[in-house]
Amino acid sequence: MTQPSDRAQAPTPVTRASGWIGYACVLAGLAVVALVLYAAGDGFGGWVVVGSIVAAVLVVLGVFLSVLNLRSRRLRGSGGTSTHEPGLID
After folding, report:
1. Between the CA of residue 42 and those of 30, 50, 75, 76, 85, what are the distances in Å?
2. What is the DSSP letter of 79?
3. Which of helix, strand or coil describes residue 84?
4. How does the average pLDDT of the chain come out, rounded?
């Protein structure tokens, strides 16, 4: 039988992509905010409400995915080196 190793598992494509998807969601949320401001200036009140909800969801989802990706990379270590070595960063 093989002994379990203490090496971290390699990142899956989903965890690799979650950071980029998070960044894209935040960027799309900022674009929707610009469209909401334009709609507010033209007097489309209903679209302002819908756009505000969509923008908030996109930004929150993007930040959540980016933080999730960052936490998983820190816990797993990036590039095979520990990011939690004492004395590495003072």
Report:
1. 19, 15, 48, 49, 55
2. T
3. coil
4. 80
Cα 40 versus chain centre, distance: 28
| CA-based nearest residue to 53, from 39, 65, 66 | 39
Q: Break the chain into its structural domains and give their ranges.
A: 17-76
How far is the C-alpha of 67 from the C-alpha of 78, rounded, in Å? 15
The rounded distance, in Å, linking the Cα atoms of 83 and 58 is 29
Q: Specify whether the CB–CB gap between 15 and 72 falls below 8 A.
A: yes
* Span 4-40, pLDDT tens digits: 555 556 667 766 788 889 999 999 999 999 999 999 9
Given a contact cutoff of 8 angstroms between Cβ atoms, the answer to whether 54 and 35 are in contact is no
Joined tokens for residue 4: 């379990």
For the chain, how many residues are written? 90
Angle at 42 between CA 57 and CA 40, to 5 degrees: 30
